[in-house]
């Protein structure tokens, strides 16, 4: 007798169960994870068909973007914004950038840091010793396999078109950050293209590249990084372009846009204890040079009324322990400026 009422109520129970499932599904659509799925869980088209999923995970795609200026595809690692935001954050690599992947993914997983952020991470691959500039000639002495660098054109003319069409990144709503060589380039590109970059950040950058002795240091560094010819970058040592691409002489275009600069003291931090002694010595010397250069840039920037924030940690050398710390520290600053929480 007791089974009959249960059978009679079965349709009502089924309907109630179905209604509850629909309610849960509706709630899921409004959650951040569902928003991630809407903008992140599908591969965009690229020059070879579609982008590929990157082993770094966190929705990072490897996209081949055609560059007319260089005559070949350039790979860019991209993490789409979490909730269809139109802001972009360009992350530039250091002097020894590789063609395998951007070090912001390889050495520090920046995509995990910005996993819930409504900003698109843009991480170009390659460009060792390039300073992300348009070079006058082949970058190495190997004329049988010339390296054509037209990075400024790619980053400011070609890539923004692709990002706007496929990732919804506005051409006038971007931040740019870089470490070491990338920090130098970030401030240069922001000053030269203020309509594209609303914010710039230099982590351990070299911001006085034409002061006495700086070009000699750069010449040695470029040769050591892979036989790169500094004379092919901007031409002769007296070329106007060489001075136009020195951040110390090239800050007028920054205007009121916020700038963040950092460089540590060069003293090893506790987290550097496991670093080989030789690497500690080199990292210390490089960071001291960056610190001196960055402080000189700051002094002039403040005199010109540039909106600059600074951080000079008491300990830290020229390595990824320092740059990971800076990326995490400046995340709120980046997202606040770009309105991309």
Supply the CATH class: Alpha Beta
Number-wise, the strands total: 11
Supply the number of helical segments.
Answer: 11
Structural class, by secondary structure, is: alpha/beta
Q: In the CATH classification, which architecture applies?
A: 3-Layer(aba) Sandwich
Provide the descriptors you would attach to this structure in a database record.
Esterase family protein, acyltransferase activity, transferring groups other than amino-acyl groups, disordered N terminus, single chain, two-stranded antiparallel sheet, 9-stranded mixed beta sheet
Write a structural description:
This protein is an alpha/beta fold and 341 residues long. The chain has a single domain (46-338), classed as Rossmann fold (3-Layer(aba) Sandwich), CATH 3.40.50.1820. Helix content is 41%, strand content 16%. The chain has a nine-stranded mixed beta sheet with strand order 3-4-5-7-6-8-9-10-11, sandwiched between helices. Strands 1-2 form a two-stranded antiparallel ribbon. A hairpin with a 7-residue loop joins strand 3 and strand 4. The longest helix is centred in the first third of the chain and has 27 residues, at 3-29. The termini are far apart.
Task: Please summarize what this structure is.
GO terms for molecular function: acyltransferase activity, transferring groups other than amino-acyl groups. By secondary structure, the protein is of the alpha/beta class.
List the helices and strands and how they pair.
Blueprint: H1 3-29, H2 32-40, E1 45-46, E2 49-50, E3 52-53, E4 61-67, E5 72-79, E6 87-92, H3 103-106, H4 110-113, E7 119-124, H5 151-167, E8 174-179, H6 181-192, E9 197-203, H7 214-224, H8 231-234, H9 240-244, E10 259-262, H10 277-303, E11 308-311, H11 320-338
Parallel strand pairs: 6-7, 6-8, 8-9, 9-10, 10-11
Antiparallel strand pairs: 1-2, 3-4, 4-5, 5-7
InterPro entries: AB_hydrolase_fold, Esterase-like, Mycobacterial_A85_antigen
GO molecular function, one term: acyltransferase activity, transferring groups other than amino-acyl groups
Signal peptide: 1-37
């Amino acid at each position: 007798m007791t089974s009959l009422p249960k059978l009679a109520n079965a349709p009502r129970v089924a309907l109630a169960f179905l209604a509850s499932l629909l309610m849960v599904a509706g709630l899921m659509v409004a959650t951040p994870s569902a928003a991630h799925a809407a903008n992140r869980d599908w591969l965009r088209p690229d020059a070879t068909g579609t982008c590929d999923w990157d082993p770094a995970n966190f929705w990072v795609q490897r996209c081949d973007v055609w560059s007319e200026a260089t005559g070949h595809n350039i790979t860019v690692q991209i993490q789409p914004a979490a909730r269809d935001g139109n802001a972009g954050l360009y992350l530039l690599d250091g002097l020894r950038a590789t063609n395998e992947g951007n070090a912001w993914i390889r050495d520090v997983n920046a995509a995990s840091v910005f996993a819930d952020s409504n900003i698109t991470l843009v991480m170009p691959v390659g460009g060792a010793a390039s300073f992300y500039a348009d070079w006058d000639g082949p970058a190495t002495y190997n004329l049988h396999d010339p390296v054509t660098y037209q990075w400024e054109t790619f980053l400011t003319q070609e890539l923004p078109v692709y990002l706007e069409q496929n990732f919804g990144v506005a051409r006038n709503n971007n931040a740019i950050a870089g470490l070491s060589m990338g920090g130098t380039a970030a401030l240069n590109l922001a000053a030269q293209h203020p309509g594209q970059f609303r914010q710039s950040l230099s982590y351990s950058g070299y911001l006085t590249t034409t002061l006495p002795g700086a070009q000699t240091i750069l010449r040695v560094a470029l040769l050591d990084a892979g036989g790169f010819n500094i004379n092919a970058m901007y031409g002769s040592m007296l070329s106007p372009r060489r001075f136009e691409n020195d951040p110390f002489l090239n800050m007028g275009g920054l205007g009121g846009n916020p700038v963040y600069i950092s460089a540590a003291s060069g003293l090893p931090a506790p987290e550097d204890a496991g670093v080989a002694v030789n690497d500690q010595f080199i990292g210390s010397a490089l960071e001291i040079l960056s610190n001196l250069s960055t402080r000189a840039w700051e002094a002039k920037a403040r005199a010109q009324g540039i909106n600059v924030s600074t951080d000079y940690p008491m300990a830290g050398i020229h390595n990824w322990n320092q740059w990971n710390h800076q990326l995490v520290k400046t995340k709120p600053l980046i997202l606040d400026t770009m309105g991309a929480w």
